[in-house]
Amino acid sequence: ARKNARRTITIFTSDMEEASRQRAAIAIDLRGAVQNGELELFFQPQNDARTRSLCGFEALVRWRHPQHGLISPVDFIPVAEETGQILEIGRWVLETACTTAAGWPERFKVAVNVSAFQLAQDTLPLQVATALSKSGLKPERLEIEITESGVITDQEHALKIVLALKELGVSVAMDDFGTGYSSLSTLQSFPFDKIKIDREFVKSLTVSPQSAAIVRSTILLGASLGIPVLAEGVETEEQLGFLQLEGCKSVQGYLFGEPLPERRAAKMIEAALES
Ligand code: C2E
Ligand code: CA
Ligand code: CA
Ligand code: CA
Protein backbone atom coordinates (compact mmCIF):
# COMPACT_ATOMS: atom_id res chain seq x y z
CA ALA A 1 0.00 0.00 0.00
CA ARG A 2 2.89 2.28 0.90
CA LYS A 3 4.52 1.66 -2.40
CA ASN A 4 1.28 2.51 -4.16
CA ALA A 5 0.83 5.70 -2.20
CA ARG A 6 4.33 6.81 -3.09
CA ARG A 7 3.77 6.00 -6.68
CA THR A 8 0.60 8.09 -6.75
CA ILE A 9 2.44 11.06 -5.28
CA THR A 10 5.27 10.67 -7.75
CA ILE A 11 2.86 10.56 -10.67
CA PHE A 12 1.00 13.60 -9.34
CA THR A 13 4.22 15.59 -8.98
CA SER A 14 5.50 14.64 -12.39
CA ASP A 15 2.14 15.52 -13.93
CA MET A 16 2.33 18.98 -12.40
CA GLU A 17 5.88 19.35 -13.61
CA GLU A 18 4.84 18.11 -17.01
CA ALA A 19 1.97 20.62 -17.11
CA SER A 20 4.20 23.53 -16.19
CA ARG A 21 6.86 22.33 -18.65
CA GLN A 22 4.16 22.30 -21.32
CA ARG A 23 3.07 25.83 -20.44
CA ALA A 24 6.64 27.06 -20.63
CA ALA A 25 7.11 25.34 -24.00
CA ILE A 26 3.90 26.88 -25.30
CA ALA A 27 5.02 30.36 -24.16
CA ILE A 28 8.32 29.96 -26.03
CA ASP A 29 6.78 28.56 -29.22
CA LEU A 30 4.09 31.24 -29.14
CA ARG A 31 6.72 33.99 -29.42
CA GLY A 32 7.05 33.84 -33.17
CA ALA A 33 3.54 32.59 -33.86
CA VAL A 34 2.00 35.89 -34.98
CA GLN A 35 4.93 36.97 -37.19
CA ASN A 36 5.22 33.48 -38.69
CA GLY A 37 1.57 33.49 -39.67
CA GLU A 38 0.74 30.50 -37.48
CA LEU A 39 -2.55 31.90 -36.14
CA GLU A 40 -5.83 31.30 -37.94
CA LEU A 41 -9.33 32.58 -37.38
CA PHE A 42 -12.33 30.29 -37.61
CA PHE A 43 -15.86 31.68 -37.87
CA GLN A 44 -18.92 30.19 -36.19
CA PRO A 45 -22.35 31.23 -37.51
CA GLN A 46 -24.81 33.15 -35.33
CA ASN A 47 -28.41 32.85 -36.48
CA ASP A 48 -31.77 34.43 -35.77
CA ALA A 49 -33.61 31.98 -33.49
CA ARG A 50 -37.03 32.53 -35.06
CA THR A 51 -36.21 32.71 -38.79
CA ARG A 52 -32.97 30.68 -38.61
CA SER A 53 -31.36 33.19 -40.97
CA LEU A 54 -27.64 33.92 -40.73
CA CYS A 55 -26.78 37.15 -38.85
CA GLY A 56 -23.01 36.94 -38.62
CA PHE A 57 -20.10 35.01 -37.12
CA GLU A 58 -18.04 34.79 -33.95
CA ALA A 59 -14.32 34.80 -34.69
CA LEU A 60 -12.46 32.04 -32.80
CA VAL A 61 -8.68 31.82 -32.92
CA ARG A 62 -6.59 28.66 -33.50
CA TRP A 63 -2.85 28.15 -33.58
CA ARG A 64 -1.36 25.99 -36.29
CA HIS A 65 1.78 24.79 -34.52
CA PRO A 66 4.52 23.67 -36.95
CA GLN A 67 4.98 20.36 -35.08
CA HIS A 68 1.80 19.78 -33.11
CA GLY A 69 -0.84 20.89 -35.60
CA LEU A 70 -3.98 22.84 -34.74
CA ILE A 71 -4.06 23.95 -31.08
CA SER A 72 -7.24 25.06 -29.29
CA PRO A 73 -7.46 28.54 -27.75
CA VAL A 74 -8.28 26.82 -24.45
CA ASP A 75 -4.67 25.58 -24.42
CA PHE A 76 -2.79 28.73 -25.41
CA ILE A 77 -4.92 31.80 -24.55
CA PRO A 78 -4.39 31.31 -20.77
CA VAL A 79 -0.63 31.05 -21.33
CA ALA A 80 -0.69 34.13 -23.56
CA GLU A 81 -2.52 35.98 -20.78
CA GLU A 82 0.16 35.04 -18.26
CA THR A 83 2.99 36.23 -20.48
CA GLY A 84 1.28 39.28 -21.94
CA GLN A 85 1.52 37.83 -25.46
CA ILE A 86 -2.28 38.16 -25.55
CA LEU A 87 -1.85 41.85 -26.46
CA GLU A 88 -0.15 41.06 -29.75
CA ILE A 89 -2.46 38.09 -30.42
CA GLY A 90 -5.49 40.21 -29.57
CA ARG A 91 -4.46 42.92 -32.00
CA TRP A 92 -3.95 40.32 -34.73
CA VAL A 93 -7.37 38.79 -34.02
CA LEU A 94 -9.09 42.19 -34.15
CA GLU A 95 -7.45 43.28 -37.38
CA THR A 96 -7.94 39.92 -39.11
CA ALA A 97 -11.58 39.60 -38.03
CA CYS A 98 -12.38 43.14 -39.21
CA THR A 99 -10.58 42.66 -42.54
CA THR A 100 -12.42 39.40 -43.19
CA ALA A 101 -15.82 40.84 -42.22
CA ALA A 102 -15.21 43.90 -44.41
CA GLY A 103 -15.30 41.50 -47.37
CA TRP A 104 -18.77 40.20 -46.44
CA PRO A 105 -22.09 41.79 -47.45
CA GLU A 106 -23.00 44.61 -45.05
CA ARG A 107 -25.74 42.81 -43.19
CA PHE A 108 -23.38 40.26 -41.64
CA LYS A 109 -21.66 41.14 -38.38
CA VAL A 110 -18.55 39.78 -36.67
CA ALA A 111 -18.01 39.16 -32.94
CA VAL A 112 -14.54 39.17 -31.39
CA ASN A 113 -13.48 37.83 -27.97
CA VAL A 114 -11.45 40.07 -25.70
CA SER A 115 -9.81 38.73 -22.55
CA ALA A 116 -9.29 40.14 -19.07
CA PHE A 117 -5.69 41.15 -19.72
CA GLN A 118 -6.69 43.16 -22.80
CA LEU A 119 -9.44 44.95 -20.87
CA ALA A 120 -7.05 45.80 -18.07
CA GLN A 121 -4.92 47.90 -20.45
CA ASP A 122 -5.69 51.33 -21.88
CA THR A 123 -4.87 50.27 -25.42
CA LEU A 124 -8.02 48.37 -26.43
CA PRO A 125 -10.13 51.29 -27.78
CA LEU A 126 -7.20 52.47 -29.90
CA GLN A 127 -6.61 48.89 -31.15
CA VAL A 128 -10.27 48.62 -32.11
CA ALA A 129 -10.30 52.04 -33.80
CA THR A 130 -7.17 51.08 -35.75
CA ALA A 131 -8.65 47.73 -36.83
CA LEU A 132 -11.81 49.50 -38.02
CA SER A 133 -9.99 52.19 -39.98
CA LYS A 134 -7.45 49.78 -41.52
CA SER A 135 -10.21 47.43 -42.68
CA GLY A 136 -12.89 49.97 -43.50
CA LEU A 137 -15.41 47.96 -41.48
CA LYS A 138 -18.32 50.01 -40.14
CA PRO A 139 -18.25 50.03 -36.32
CA GLU A 140 -21.86 48.81 -36.05
CA ARG A 141 -20.78 45.57 -37.73
CA LEU A 142 -18.32 44.74 -34.93
CA GLU A 143 -19.26 43.26 -31.57
CA ILE A 144 -16.80 42.82 -28.70
CA GLU A 145 -17.44 39.86 -26.39
CA ILE A 146 -16.29 40.18 -22.81
CA THR A 147 -16.65 37.80 -19.88
CA GLU A 148 -17.38 38.69 -16.31
CA SER A 149 -13.88 37.61 -15.26
CA GLY A 150 -12.64 40.32 -17.60
CA VAL A 151 -14.34 43.13 -15.74
CA ILE A 152 -14.37 42.28 -12.03
CA THR A 153 -10.74 42.92 -11.07
CA ASP A 154 -10.92 46.65 -11.72
CA GLN A 155 -14.57 47.43 -12.50
CA GLU A 156 -14.03 51.16 -12.76
CA HIS A 157 -11.29 50.83 -15.36
CA ALA A 158 -13.19 48.15 -17.30
CA LEU A 159 -16.26 50.39 -17.42
CA LYS A 160 -14.18 53.24 -18.82
CA ILE A 161 -12.89 50.96 -21.57
CA VAL A 162 -16.36 49.60 -22.37
CA LEU A 163 -17.76 53.14 -22.61
CA ALA A 164 -14.91 54.15 -24.90
CA LEU A 165 -15.66 51.13 -27.12
CA LYS A 166 -19.35 52.07 -27.30
CA GLU A 167 -18.31 55.63 -28.12
CA LEU A 168 -16.62 54.18 -31.24
CA GLY A 169 -19.97 52.71 -32.28
CA VAL A 170 -19.20 49.01 -31.69
CA SER A 171 -21.52 46.86 -29.60
CA VAL A 172 -20.50 44.93 -26.50
CA ALA A 173 -21.79 41.48 -25.49
CA MET A 174 -21.58 39.78 -22.11
CA ASP A 175 -20.12 36.33 -22.81
CA ASP A 176 -20.72 33.13 -20.79
CA PHE A 177 -23.57 34.68 -18.80
CA GLY A 178 -24.36 32.78 -15.62
CA THR A 179 -21.00 31.10 -15.09
CA GLY A 180 -19.36 33.83 -12.99
CA TYR A 181 -19.87 34.85 -9.39
CA SER A 182 -21.76 38.08 -9.93
CA SER A 183 -23.44 37.97 -13.31
CA LEU A 184 -26.33 40.13 -12.13
CA SER A 185 -24.27 42.91 -10.60
CA THR A 186 -22.01 42.93 -13.67
CA LEU A 187 -25.12 43.25 -15.80
CA GLN A 188 -26.27 46.12 -13.61
CA SER A 189 -23.01 48.06 -13.91
CA PHE A 190 -22.21 47.60 -17.60
CA PRO A 191 -24.21 48.82 -20.62
CA PHE A 192 -24.22 45.53 -22.55
CA ASP A 193 -25.92 45.28 -25.93
CA LYS A 194 -26.29 41.50 -25.80
CA ILE A 195 -26.30 38.65 -23.27
CA LYS A 196 -24.81 35.31 -24.31
CA ILE A 197 -26.15 32.44 -22.19
CA ASP A 198 -23.40 29.95 -21.56
CA ARG A 199 -23.46 26.55 -23.26
CA GLU A 200 -23.47 24.82 -19.86
CA PHE A 201 -27.14 25.81 -19.33
CA VAL A 202 -28.22 25.19 -22.92
CA LYS A 203 -26.66 21.73 -22.92
CA SER A 204 -28.98 20.35 -20.26
CA LEU A 205 -31.98 22.49 -21.15
CA THR A 206 -34.27 19.67 -22.20
CA VAL A 207 -33.32 17.24 -19.42
CA SER A 208 -32.88 19.48 -16.39
CA PRO A 209 -35.75 21.60 -15.04
CA GLN A 210 -33.12 23.74 -13.28
CA SER A 211 -31.32 24.56 -16.52
CA ALA A 212 -34.62 25.23 -18.28
CA ALA A 213 -35.64 27.64 -15.50
CA ILE A 214 -32.30 29.46 -15.65
CA VAL A 215 -32.44 29.85 -19.43
CA ARG A 216 -36.08 30.96 -19.34
CA SER A 217 -35.34 33.51 -16.59
CA THR A 218 -32.31 34.87 -18.41
CA ILE A 219 -34.34 35.44 -21.58
CA LEU A 220 -37.01 37.17 -19.49
CA LEU A 221 -34.36 39.25 -17.73
CA GLY A 222 -32.99 40.32 -21.10
CA ALA A 223 -36.48 41.27 -22.27
CA SER A 224 -37.09 43.34 -19.13
CA LEU A 225 -33.78 45.15 -19.59
CA GLY A 226 -34.26 45.55 -23.34
CA ILE A 227 -31.14 43.47 -24.05
CA PRO A 228 -31.37 40.69 -26.67
CA VAL A 229 -30.23 37.23 -25.57
CA LEU A 230 -28.17 34.74 -27.60
CA ALA A 231 -27.97 31.07 -26.58
CA GLU A 232 -24.62 29.33 -27.07
CA GLY A 233 -24.01 25.67 -27.77
CA VAL A 234 -27.34 24.90 -29.43
CA GLU A 235 -26.97 21.35 -30.78
CA THR A 236 -30.51 19.98 -31.19
CA GLU A 237 -33.87 20.93 -32.69
CA GLU A 238 -35.41 20.29 -29.29
CA GLN A 239 -33.19 22.93 -27.68
CA LEU A 240 -33.96 25.36 -30.51
CA GLY A 241 -37.70 24.74 -30.08
CA PHE A 242 -37.53 25.64 -26.39
CA LEU A 243 -35.49 28.78 -27.09
CA GLN A 244 -37.90 29.92 -29.83
CA LEU A 245 -40.87 29.42 -27.54
CA GLU A 246 -39.22 31.47 -24.79
CA GLY A 247 -38.40 34.31 -27.16
CA CYS A 248 -34.61 33.95 -27.37
CA LYS A 249 -33.32 36.36 -30.02
CA SER A 250 -30.42 34.46 -31.56
CA VAL A 251 -28.54 31.17 -31.41
CA GLN A 252 -25.10 29.72 -32.01
CA GLY A 253 -24.00 26.09 -31.94
CA TYR A 254 -23.34 22.93 -33.91
CA LEU A 255 -27.00 22.79 -35.06
CA PHE A 256 -26.21 25.77 -37.30
CA GLY A 257 -22.51 25.14 -37.79
CA GLU A 258 -19.19 24.57 -36.09
CA PRO A 259 -16.41 27.17 -36.29
CA LEU A 260 -15.44 27.24 -40.00
CA PRO A 261 -12.32 28.32 -41.89
CA GLU A 262 -12.77 31.68 -43.68
CA ARG A 263 -13.53 30.10 -47.08
CA ARG A 264 -16.25 27.87 -45.72
CA ALA A 265 -17.80 30.82 -43.87
CA ALA A 266 -17.85 32.69 -47.20
CA LYS A 267 -19.64 29.71 -48.80
CA MET A 268 -22.22 29.78 -46.01
CA ILE A 269 -22.80 33.48 -46.73
CA GLU A 270 -23.29 32.73 -50.45
CA ALA A 271 -25.83 30.04 -49.60
CA ALA A 272 -27.64 32.41 -47.21
CA LEU A 273 -27.88 35.07 -49.93
CA GLU A 274 -29.33 32.59 -52.43
CA SER A 275 -32.08 31.33 -50.14
P1 C2E B 1 -16.36 30.96 -26.06
O1 C2E B 1 -16.20 32.41 -26.37
O2 C2E B 1 -17.43 30.60 -25.08
O3 C2E B 1 -16.57 30.26 -27.46
C1 C2E B 1 -17.45 29.21 -27.70
C2 C2E B 1 -16.74 27.88 -27.71
O4 C2E B 1 -17.73 26.85 -27.73
C3 C2E B 1 -15.87 27.66 -28.93
O5 C2E B 1 -14.76 26.84 -28.55
C4 C2E B 1 -16.78 26.85 -29.84
O6 C2E B 1 -16.09 26.04 -30.77
C5 C2E B 1 -17.53 25.99 -28.85
N1 C2E B 1 -18.85 25.61 -29.34
C6 C2E B 1 -19.64 26.33 -30.15
N2 C2E B 1 -20.79 25.72 -30.40
C7 C2E B 1 -20.76 24.55 -29.71
C8 C2E B 1 -21.69 23.47 -29.56
O7 C2E B 1 -22.81 23.46 -30.12
N3 C2E B 1 -21.33 22.45 -28.75
C9 C2E B 1 -20.13 22.43 -28.13
N4 C2E B 1 -19.84 21.35 -27.37
N5 C2E B 1 -19.22 23.41 -28.26
C10 C2E B 1 -19.53 24.48 -29.04
P2 C2E B 1 -13.28 27.29 -28.93
O8 C2E B 1 -13.24 27.80 -30.33
O9 C2E B 1 -12.40 26.14 -28.58
O10 C2E B 1 -12.98 28.51 -27.97
C11 C2E B 1 -12.89 28.30 -26.60
C12 C2E B 1 -12.73 29.62 -25.87
O11 C2E B 1 -11.48 30.24 -26.21
C13 C2E B 1 -13.79 30.65 -26.23
O12 C2E B 1 -14.97 30.37 -25.53
C14 C2E B 1 -13.10 31.93 -25.81
O13 C2E B 1 -13.27 32.15 -24.43
C15 C2E B 1 -11.63 31.64 -26.09
N6 C2E B 1 -11.21 32.31 -27.33
C16 C2E B 1 -11.39 31.88 -28.61
N7 C2E B 1 -10.89 32.77 -29.48
C17 C2E B 1 -10.41 33.81 -28.76
C18 C2E B 1 -9.76 35.06 -29.09
O14 C2E B 1 -9.56 35.41 -30.25
N8 C2E B 1 -9.40 35.86 -28.04
C19 C2E B 1 -9.65 35.53 -26.74
N9 C2E B 1 -9.27 36.36 -25.79
N10 C2E B 1 -10.23 34.37 -26.40
C20 C2E B 1 -10.62 33.51 -27.39
CA1 CA C 1 -17.19 34.18 -27.01
CA1 CA D 1 -19.19 32.04 -24.74
CA1 CA E 1 -18.59 29.36 -22.93
N-to-C CA distance: 67 Å
SS-based class = alpha/beta
Q: How many strand segments?
A: 10
Strand order of the largest sheet: 1-2-4-5-6-7-8-9
Determine Rg (CA atoms, Å): 20 Å
Describe the sheet with the most strands.
Answer: 8 strands, mixed, barrel
Provide the list of bound ligands, each named once. ligand C2E, calcium ion
Q: Which residues form runs of ≥5 with pLDDT under 50?
A: 1-11
β-strand amount: 15-25%
- Summed up, the helix count is 11
The best one-word shape is globular
Mean pLDDT: 92
Q: What sequence of helices (H) and strands (E) makes up the elements?
A: HEEEHHEHHEHEHEHHEHEEH
How much helicity do the residues have? 40-55%
Domain EAL: 23-273
Protein name: Bifunctional diguanylate cyclase/phosphodiesterase
Organism: Roseibium aestuarii
Question: What report would you give on this structure?
Answer:
There is one protein chain. The protein has 275 residues and is of the alpha/beta class. Helices cover 51% and strands 20% of the residues. The chain contains 11 helices and 10 strands. An 8-stranded mixed barrel has the order 1-2-4-5-6-7-8-9, surrounded by 4 helices. Strand 1 (39-48) and strand 2 form a beta hairpin. Helix 1 crosses helix 2 (73-83), helix 3 runs parallel beside helix 5 (124-135) and helix 5 (124-135) runs parallel beside helix 6. It is globular and about 50 Å long. The chain starts with a helix and ends with a helix. The site of one calcium ion (CA) has 4 residues, from loops.
